[in-house]
Amino acid sequence: MVRVFRKLGSIQFDPLAIAGRSHDLVLHARVADYEPGWCDLLYERREIFEAYNKGLSLVPSSKYPWFRTMVRNAPEILAENADVAERVLDRICTEGPLSALDFERERGPTTAWFGVQTNAVRAVLEAYTGTGVLGLARRDGNRRYYDLLERLLPADLLARDVPPRQKLLYKLLSRYRAHGLLGISGAGDIFSGIGPAKPSPGHPGRNALREELVELGEIVPVEVEGVPGKRFVIREDLALLEAPPEPPPSVAFLSPFDALVWDRRLLGSLFDFDYVWELFIPPAKRRWGWYVLPITFQDRLVGRFEPRIDRESARVDVLNVWWEKGFAPGRAEGFVDAMRDALRAYLRFAAAGSLEWAPHLRTEKRLFPTHRPARRARPKRARRPTGR
Fold it and tell me: pLDDT-based confidence at 377, cuts 50/70/90?
């Protein structure tokens, strides 16, 4: 599992757990028999930590110096709320990890934090994190517990200083590493946090950074038949282009934040797959659903489905399934068995004992039963006496 973090560079975090947390879905699609507790264990061991790299992400702790940043307005927040900041820091120094709810709610006006009005304690905790004084010790659901960063990461790691340009180069390389075939421009927020394409005061520009990675041999420009524009692969992946491996005969379900679906245009031109995360689209205008997972089979994107994990009932509800035009699940060689295996693995991932299909999905219910055949009863063997 650690190798996945090293390969991708970072995995985007999202607290929504409708079909499983996003980072857990990314790992579930790549690690056999993955359980969400495994990632939590890495977090508790300080082998991974939270940082911003295309949104809030989980990154290897060994790379902390490359992600250490000073949030621009953090010092102002601390100065404006000096009394609160002093009390918060004193208690954490004395008591250890605390959350915003461990403090009495401060009275008076709220504090602006990135344009959002928030409680003064919460703003101070975030500001201390933005200045490198505090870090996240753990999460309890969506509740965050903060502790002194010096108690969370080794001193030699905290002492390492990486020049700003090297940080930007590392982050840009991590995007190409995670996706595998990004181009020059990025739709949406693919290159979020790395700055503008052209130079600006205090910033070299993404174009110059990308050319530097090419000169260093870290990424290599390639052309893909049928795909407009220049694409780039990382140096280590060149061998895969020269001798592509046989795609595994397996099915995987992708998170809406999975690196594979970052570039929607590439999905359309390379796989003829149209994917939009419709969480923020009004229900009446959605083509698919609220939290929909793309389905991969071998080297194809063959459909999408909308699962809901009902934790109280230990059940997964499948609200809908959409197959790609021209794909017949019952006729694709090997797909039915692979889909059954994937659904069983998903049930284990969700800690669920049963899967319920929506009434209109009768064909899918028949094709993909997830119950295991009952074992034949074996005759009981007499126990051997245990002499003394």
Answer: very low
Alpha-carbon distances, residue 335 vs 52, 90, 295, 328 (angstroms): 38, 59, 11, 10
Rounded to 10 deg, the angle between the 120-130 and 82-95 helix axes is 70
352 close to 316: Cβ distance less than 8 angstroms: yes
Distance CA 48, CA 124 (A): 24
Total-model pTM = 0.87
pLDDT of the residue at 3: 85
pLDDT value at position 193? 86
Identify the pLDDT of residue 236: 92
Question: What is the pLDDT averaged over residues 344-351?
Answer: 96
pLDDT tens for 188-229 read 688 988 988 899 988 999 999 999 999 999 999 999 888 888
Q: Is 266 helix (H, G, I), strand (E, B) or coil?
A: helix
| Residue that the structure tokens 């064909």 belong to | 363
Helix (H), strand (E) at residue 48: strand 48-52
Interatomic CA distance for residues 11 and 13, integer angstroms: 6
- Residue at 129 is within a domain: yes
What's the DSSP call for residue 255? -
Mean pLDDT of 348-372: 92
Residue that is last in its domain, among 159, 188, 221: 159
In a domain, 152, yes or no: yes
Q: Is 287 exposed, middle or buried (0-12, 13-18, 19+ CB in 10 A)?
A: exposed
The parent domain of residue 46 ranges over 1-68
Query: Which pLDDT tens digit goes with each residue over 150-172?
Result: 999 999 999 999 999 999 999 99
Long-range contacts of 230-237 (CB under 8 A, 24+ apart): 230/183, 230/184, 231/181, 231/182, 231/183, 232/176, 232/181, 232/182, 232/183, 233/176, 233/180, 233/181, 234/173, 234/176, 234/177, 234/180, 237/180
187 band by pLDDT with thresholds 50, 70 and 90: low
> Are 235 and 281 in a shared domain?
no
Which element (helix H / strand E) includes 98? Answer: none
CA distance 75 to 128: 8
In a domain, 150, yes or no: yes
Token code pair at residue 339: 């889909």
Taking the C-alpha atoms of residue 11 and residue 57, their distance in angstroms, rounded to an integer, is 5
